[in-house]
């Protein structure tokens, strides 16, 4: 896992050319890109008054296969072979114009700036409590089977981009969620985005839940900054195991700042981040927070060693118990 400032390392394309073809190697139409990532995590955690626990696990072992025909067609398949194997991505992308692309299959939903980024691109060891609650428990964001269209006009000022997609609900048959994202680039390295997600069957009544996002990401030279606010309405979040008996308007906010010190093939990146999560805006006794800090040591932008400390705290009505977590993380990328 690395920040977005790192240069992407691509495998050399495999060119399949017929005899007598005038296509040059630099513009060979058919290419195969193979990559792999492995994450190993050691975590020491104390929850409430319980005894601390220590765990070592294979957090990810993912293979990424991308077959492309120029810029027109791309087929991506990414199986994850860790302790609970699953298929992360499996989609076909068609780009008939430079300004237009259409993607069909299992893919990331365009909602949540931190969720939209790969874990290899963000400085923190994980995405945090806002992602855990809003994405994994309420179902906003994550990967889903669906169709996504994007229009991006790089020749215009601010380089505007509009994405719109429909995705399988995952929990209810024959129901589809809708997501939309609009972004502009006011400065080089800056991305300002607003997004909307409508999730079916997300309320107690069976109606659709809705959520919105406003975010700013800056990734330029050695600086990486993220500030994001998410608000929506769905089933009320409570402690795990406690029945959910009402709907509520939730609010999540997070900010992360990282700075890189570069030394040839080595890079040190300290970072600091914080999150707020209010499961119900009308209730004042359930606001919780998380603060974290750490440092990443990256070698040749392929090997990463991370050390992170995180404190999560809130009142008794908060969705998570108080906890302190120390994590050592090893990430490796090949291809």
Structural class label: mainly beta
The fraction of residues assigned to DSSP E strands is over 45%
Q: Mean of the pLDDT scores? A: 89
Strand order of the largest sheet: 1-2-3-4-5-6-7-8-9-10-11-12-14-15-16-17
Q: How many helical stretches? A: 2
Percent helix range: under 10%
**CATH superfamily grouping:** Porin
Oligomer: single chain
Q: Characterize the biggest β-sheet.
A: 16 strands, antiparallel, barrel
Over the alpha carbons, how many angstroms does the gyration radius reach? 21 Å
- Give the termini distance in whole angstroms: 14 Å
Q: Give the second-level CATH assignment, the architecture.
A: Beta Barrel
Describe the overall structure.
- It is a single chain.
- This protein has 335 residues and is mainly beta.
- It has a single domain (29-334), classed as Porin (Beta Barrel).
- Helices cover 4% and strands 57% of the residues.
- It contains two helices and 17 strands.
- It has helices at 113-116, 129-137, and strands at 30-47, 53-69, 73-80, 86-97, 100-108, 143-152, 161-168, 176-184, 190-199, 209-220, 223-235, 247-259, 261-263, 266-278, 288-299, 303-313, 323-334.
- A 16-stranded antiparallel barrel has the order 1-2-3-4-5-6-7-8-9-10-11-12-14-15-16-17.
- The radius of gyration is 21 Å and the shape is globular.
- Residues 1-26 have low confidence and may be disordered.
